[in-house]
Automatic annotation (TrEMBL):
Native organism taxonomy: Eukaryota, Fungi, Fungi incertae sedis, Mucoromycota, Glomeromycotina
Function: Required for nuclear membrane fusion during karyogamy.
Organism: Rhizophagus irregularis
Identification of the protein by name: Nuclear fusion protein KAR5
Gene Ontology annotations of biological process type: karyogamy involved in conjugation with cellular fusion; nuclear membrane fusion involved in karyogamy
A Pfam family it matches: Tht1
Keywords: Endoplasmic reticulum, Glycoprotein, Karyogamy, Membrane, Nucleus, Signal, Transmembrane, Transmembrane helix
């Protein structure tokens, strides 16, 4: 009805015919407007004619209007998807750059780790060689010290009976027997001194073994720390 009233009002305005004042606000009270129009035959004829044709006019314009609406909707959807795809492309490019950077960092980290492992292998091999050499020297020194101790035991075993004989015959001893006692005493002192030196060498080699073991432990701890760093980096990224 409002559409038919507006069409009638527009047509009558071209003929300089004043429309009823009740039709100035048809959005709020269209009934009063129609009642006023019905009192004027010319106005009513114009209104009723448009009222009969308005449905046909709307039907005739529907397809064009629907097409325009669909085209507008399609254009809006196309722009929206274009914006979304553009944004996704930017995100993918950003992620690709981050991936390349991370791969470069991972490659660098793995290269450094491989280098550390190689250095550790070389250090371990060198330390193992040194340890074998020290153990070999220690074995030789130990065997030598054992031989010296056995020899000292034999000498002491020989010395004790001779000392007893000398004590039994001390009153009748001569200068030759006294010289023999002095020589045995000097020999014992020399053997004891040699054994003390051997024991000092053993202690020094034990210190070297301890230092090599500490180096090996430190190298292993460094490798374990690097392996933990790799595990953490893999979990984060």
């Amino acid at each position: 009805m409002q559409y038919a009233i507006r069409l009638a009002k527009c047509e009558l305005a071209t003929a300089n015919l004043a429309f009823p004042m009740e039709c100035d606000d048809i959005d709020h009270d269209v009934g009063k407007c129609i009642e006023s129009i019905s009192r004027i035959p010319q106005f009513w004829t114009t209104y009723s004619g448009y009222f009969r044709e308005v449905s046909q006019m709307c039907f005739a314009m529907r397809y064009s209007l629907e097409r325009d609406l669909l085209e507008e909707y399609n254009r809006n959807v196309t722009f929206k998807y274009h914006h979304i795809l553009k944004h996704l492309h930017e995100i993918m490019m950003t992620l690709r750059k981050e991936e390349v950077n991370r791969l470069s960092q991972i490659k660098k980290f793995l290269t450094n780790m491989a280098k550390d492992v190689n250095e550790l292998e070389e250090t371990t091999s060198f330390n193992m060689g040194s340890l074998k050499g020290i153990l070999s020297d220690f074995q030789i020194i130990t065997q030598s010290a054992l031989s010296q101790i056995i020899h000292l035991n034999e000498e002491l075993g020989k010395f004790v009976p001779n000392a007893r004989i000398i004590l039994d015959e001390i009153n009748n001893a001569n200068e030759q027997q006294l010289s023999t006692i002095k020589e045995l005493t000097v020999t014992s002192k020399d053997i004891i001194q040699v054994n003390f030196e051997k024991l000092g060498q053993i202690y020094q080699h034990l210190q070297k073994i301890d230092a090599v073991a500490r180096d090996i432990l430190l190298s292993q701890e460094q490798v374990y720390d690097n392996m933990e760093d790799v595990k953490v980096y893999t979990i984060l990224y």
